[in-house]
Amino acid sequence: MAHDDSSGSELAAPSSGAAAGTAVERAGTAESNGGLAVITTDTFPDPGMPPHRPRVTDLDPKKARTAQRAVYTLFYLSVAGSVFALAAYMAFPIEDGDPGALRLNTVFLGLGITLALMGIGLGAVHWAKTLMADHEGIDVRHPVRGTPETRTRAVEIFDDANKESGFGRRTLIRNSLIGALVAFPLPAVILFRGLGPQFDNPASLLETTMWKAGARLTLDPSGLPIKASDVTLGSAFHIIPEGLNEMPDRLEQKAKAAVLLMRVNPADLNVSPGRETWNYDGIVAYSKICTHVGCPVALFEQQTHHLLCPCHQSTFDVNNECKVIFGPAKRALPQLPITVDGEGYLIAQSDFLEPVGPSFWERS
User: Fold this and answer.
1) Is residue 73 domain-resident?
2) Which of 107, 117, 211, 219 could pair with 351 in a Cys bridge, judged by C-beta atoms 3.0 to 4.6 Å apart?
3) What whole-number percentage of the chain has pLDDT above 90?
4) Residue 185 lies in a domain
5) Which residues form the Rieske domain (predicted)?
6) Section 312-317 average pLDDT
7) Pair (42, 60) in one structural domain
């Protein structure tokens, strides 16, 4: 397509014999002609490698020794981190049912491993950037695409193999082979399934928790009971049943009974028939266990009244009985019916009326 500039001059295609050095001139002409791109087949000479810029450690032996000390110091810090991790593992053993010991073990073991990995990583990078050989080079690579002859020959080999084996025309053999390959992994699937709970109805494990009528709601992890007056508008608390900390299997019980307690404006709540008495003056309690894969739902957004699961971003609407509004979860969080006792403490009216936890369990 022809293009005329304001002066009426016509932009001509470059001649095949033009020198490479005139490409810049043509580019400038293109800018003056409204920015029309100019396509040229001219080649440019190899500019070669840029001038080598020596590092400060190449020029100053004192700087090189300083860099060397920094590198081996980082490596020794890595050794210290590994030793610290081993010492922390033995100094803070994980005792059955003791969440405090588990926290200490996790924190100090993680710090030691972090120091060990960071020391190695930073030391290796600093070594490479300051002390290893610093010379530019050219890596000549061959084309990765096969030649037309090679590609044609590959097609011929596949065609010959199909004809010689009869895979394409012996349908019974082909289909039986496909069936055998599909069925082959099934025994492994069955064996792995045997590692799971052996119950006709796995949901029965999640149908009951420690919650019962009259059980006080207590703060996690202190176990102190909480009054309705302590729950202010827009606040949220992590709750466990009264007496859970004294249970020998408290970690297993907590994995089912953990609850999030929130207070919103009662006028904002959309309550289904039969659930009118499940909240107390806008205070609602819902299972903390996500109905997707069981992660702890721990993030409450005060303005939107949304609960967020940090694992896979399932989002639940507190104003609408924690129904799912986003994410992979398919079921609302189970609600714990609550009220207050004569002293003003929040108590449960009953256990959850549906199984808590992930929805992949079969449910009757």
Assistant:
1) yes
2) 211
3) 42
4) no
5) 277-347
6) 94
7) no
